[in-house]
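Q: Predict the bound structure with adenosine-5'-triphosphate.
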Amino acid sequence: MDLIVDALSVKLGKRIVLHDASAHLRPGRVTAILGPNGAGKSTLVKAAAALVGRAGGCVRLDAQDVATMDPRVRARAIGYLPQDATVHWNIVARDVVALGRLPHLGAHAAPSPEDRAAVDRAMHDTETTHLADRPVGELSGGERARVLLARVFAGEPRWLLADEPLASLDPAHQIDLLARLRTYAAGGAGVAIVLHDLVQAQRAADDALLIAEGRVVAFGPVAEVMTADTLARVFGVRVAPLDDVSGLGEGGGTRRLLVPVGRIDAA
Ligand SMILES: Nc1ncnc2c1ncn2[C@@H]1O[C@H](COP(=O)(O)OP(=O)(O)OP(=O)(O)O)[C@@H](O)[C@H]1O
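A: Predicted complex:
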């Protein structure tokens, strides 16, 4: 199931904040959505989850416009993790994760063993099992972020859209999550994540979608899109090469990453 952003424009307040954006995202791959603050990344992801209206164009899952899909069908197809990790009810973590199964339940139906197993799996995969009985209001920011991630994983969506999922995670959990997202994509789902960390994006993503000032400036395989010139143009940063010898490169070899080391105008 491809996720197709087709000439999408979005107006928020009085301003068009996304102009004529197009990209054809494929399942089985991790796409990093990158760009400076205010570029329109969250807006694009929200439009893909049908959470904001649009001024033109559309987002489709194969041939189906996400805006006109049955909401339950859409919720099974698209899992969305917002940037803001607020939970408004002080319920225990396991109940938050179980909310991810709602699109799979029949009206008034109790969770099935399959639903419970999906919740268990999601909590195991996000290392939140030990938090199951804790009220979410008592959790640390990073713990709560992992519980909210577990909620999205529990829904087993065909497309997982996450807005800055690394933001409050410690380095070990960032690495775990990126590995988990890669595994999720390898299982046939689509994964699109908004990231600010250019190095993690190069490590974890297959494709990069670069947005600046509300426009798509580049989209394609990471190595082709995330060049020193493009990063300089889009982010205004100088980069230095770093050889990643962890064996995660093509064929288990070394991979050259570009690390931001300074601002262009401060050279
Ligand atoms: N509700 C709103 N009303 C008006 N303008 C908005 C609204 N929400 C966002 N914007 C504006 O739309 C633009 C794009 O915002 P968006 O949140 O998509 O950016 P972003 O690329 O995700 O940024 P960041 O990296 O800072 O999270 C920004 O200029 C922002 O100020």
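A: The two ends are 45 Å apart (CA to CA).
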